[in-house]
Amino acid sequence: xxxxxxxGKIKNNMTTLRLRKSIGRSSSRxxxxxxxxxxxxxALSPLAQAVSPPPDGGYPGQNTAxxxxxxxxxxxxxxxxxxxxxxWLSLFANTTGSFNTGVGAGTLWANTSHNNTAVGAxxxxxxxxxxxxxxxxxxxxxxxxxxxxNTAVGAATLVFNTEGSxNTAVGVNALTENTTGGFNxxxxxxxxxxxxxxxxxxxxxxxxxxxxxxxxxxxxx
Length: 221
What we know:
Elements: H1 7-44, E1 58-59, E2 63-66, E3 84-86, E4 101-103, E5 117-119, E6 134-136, E7 151-153, E8 168-170, E9 185-187, E10 192-194, E11 199-201
Parallel strand pairs: 2-3, 3-4, 4-5, 5-6, 6-7, 7-8, 8-9
Antiparallel strand pairs: 1-2, 10-11
């Protein structure tokens, strides 16, 4: 058996292969180092501003406010951060609360707590120290003050709840008269009064006030 490549040539080929691998690893490391630098350059470049004029409403503490007196009480050096207030008097009284989102007139007006989300006019308006609540719909959780961990989806859901915690209401007027009852699941629209003109709408657990940990079906009419 004969070998066409002399020993010297084989050695040179192996050296070249190791050199190529070394160059490849060095290039990969250099690319990883350059990626953050490129992003930093884009962030500092005037061309990075996509809109002109740039959006307003940005305030210290990563807070965003847009609308008449939204986030009105936030101090110049806020203890509360990462709040978004959009709408008339949204998050008006918030001073130290963080991670709240209010979209709609009067949402989270009295709030001083954290981690609440209110979407719809009057949602969570009177909430003060209740935290972790989600209200999606006009007047949802309107009178909640200290209740925590409630989820209200639909107009006027849990509208009279004040201290009840851990309730889940889905559907127009669901759990509408609940005040202090906790951990109630109510799903279904279908008697309750829908603000502002008190239209009568049937609802799941619409008459529950203080009961807790119930598992009812929506009432059918």
